[in-house]
Amino acid sequence: MEKLRIGIIGAGGIAQGRHIPVLLQLQQEAEVTAVCDVNEETARQAGVSFSRPYVTTHVHEVFSRVDAVIISTPNKFHSQITIAALEAGVHVLCEKPMAMSAGEAQAMTAAADKTGKTLMIGYHYRSMREAQAAKTLIDAGEIGTPMVARVQALRRRKVPGWGVFTNKELQGGGSLIDFGCHFLDLALWLLGSPEPVEVVGQTYDRLSRMPGQINQWGDVDQESFEVDDHVTAYVRFDNGATLLFETSWAANVKEDKEYCSISGSTGGVDLFPLEVNQAKHGMLLDSTANWVPGSDDPGLFQMQRFFAAVRGEAPVYVPPIDSLKTQQLIDAIYESSVTGEAVRL
Ligand SMILES: NC(=O)c1ccc[n+]([C@@H]2O[C@H](COP(=O)([O-])OP(=O)(O)OC[C@H]3O[C@@H](n4cnc5c(N)ncnc54)[C@H](O)[C@@H]3O)[C@@H](O)[C@H]2O)c1
C-alpha cells in the first residue's frame, strides 16, 4: 500500500494536540509531507516530528506535495481552503464547524461533488465508542423509531481564553458554532438525518460581558467579547422528530455535562455513559454497556475513517451533506435569536 502524503494547514492547538499525535501513530499508512501556517515558526515546530516536511506560509504551495490535507485553521478559512484543495485534486479532512455559514458549506459540498474528492468534517463525537454503539443499537431497531433527541453540552465557566474563539469575524460565533455544533451533528446522525423544518433559538452573552467574571479557562476580556456563551434551541423535523438543545461555555451549573439522549417509540438510549431503556415482555428494562468495541481515541478512529474514504475502501464517515445540515441548523438558531421568530427551512 502506497503511503498517503498528508499536508497540515493550520498547525496550532488541535493540529498539535490531536492530529499530529494520531499521524505519528499511523506512519505505516501516511507521512506528513507539508505543513502550512501563517505563522512560519508554528509550522516549523509542528513539522519537527516528521522527516523533513515542506514548511510554508502559503497554502497553495501545499497542494502539489500531498494527496490529502487536514485543515485546522480558524473557521473563517475552512471554506476557501477546502474548495481550493478539492479543486487542486486534494482530499480534505476539515475541522469542525464545516464553515461560517450554510452558504459556504453548500459551496464546499458542491466542490466535493464536482471534483469527486473526499471531504470529511472533523465532527469527532461520532467517532466515540459510545456514539458508535448507540448508532448500532438504534439502527438495529432497539428503540423503535427515534422521535425525541435531548442534548446538553455544558461547560461551567470555561470560555476559551486563548486563540480566536471569541472573535466573531474569525469564528462566526461562540459556544454554538464551536462546541454545540458537535452535539447537533451527533443528534442529527442518531435521529437518522431527518430534514429540519422549523427552528427556534436563543443566544446569550450576558455572563461573559459582565465585568469580573470567574472563568476557568484563562482571561476573557468582557469589552471585546462578541459571541454567544450560552444557547438554547428547539428543532422540528419533517418526520415529526424533535430536538431539545442547549449548549454553553459558561453555564451556571454544578458541573460540566455532555449529554445526548434519544427517545424512540419502544425504548431510549442515553450517551456518556451509554444506557438503554426498553419496554419489553411487559417489563421496563434498563441496560448498561459492560464493554463496547472501538478505539478509546476518537481522533485516531476519525483519521482511520478518513484514510479509508480517501483510498476508496469505505464511504465518508461524516459526509459533507450531513455537515451542511448541521450548518443550516447553526444559521437558523442564530437567525431566530436575532429576529425573535421561528425560522422555517
Ligand atoms: N474537533 C474539535 O473538538 C476541535 C477542538 C479544537 C479546535 N477545533 C477546530 O480547529 C480549528 C483550529 O482551532 P485551534 O484550537 O487549533 O486554533 P489555534 O488558534 O490554536 O490554531 C489555528 C492555527 O491556524 C493558523 N492560521 C490562521 N489562519 C491561517 C491560514 N489562513 N492559513 C494557514 N494557517 C492559518 C494560526 O496561525 C494557528 O496556528 C478551528 O476551526 C476549531 O473549531 C476543533
Outline the fold blueprint:
Elements: E1 4-9, H1 13-25, E2 30-36, H2 40-47, E3 54-56, E4 68-71, H3 78-87, E5 91-94, H4 102-115, E6 119-121, H5 129-139, E7 146-154, H6 168-171, H7 175-191, E8 196-204, E9 230-237, E10 242-248, E11 257-264, E12 267-271, E13 275-280, E14 283-288, H8 298-310, H9 320-339, E15 343-344
Parallel strand pairs: 1-2, 1-4, 2-3, 4-5, 5-6, 7-10
Antiparallel strand pairs: 7-11, 8-9, 8-15, 9-10, 11-12, 12-13, 13-14
The chain binds nicotinamide-adenine-dinucleotide (NAD).
Nicotinamide-adenine-dinucleotide is lined by residues 9-15, 36-39, 42, 59, 72-75, 77, 95-96, 122, 124, 163-164, 178.
Q: Could you state the order of secondary-structure elements as H and E?
A: EHEHEEHEHEHEHHEEEEEEEHHE
Structural class: alpha/beta
Spatial sequence of strands, sheet with the most strands = 14-13-12-11-7-10-9-8-15
Q: Regarding CATH, which class of the largest domain?
A: Alpha Beta
Global Rg: 20 Å
Number of domains: 2
Number of DSSP E strands: 15
Judging from the principal axes of the Cα atoms, what is the shape? globular
**Number of discrete helical segments:** 9
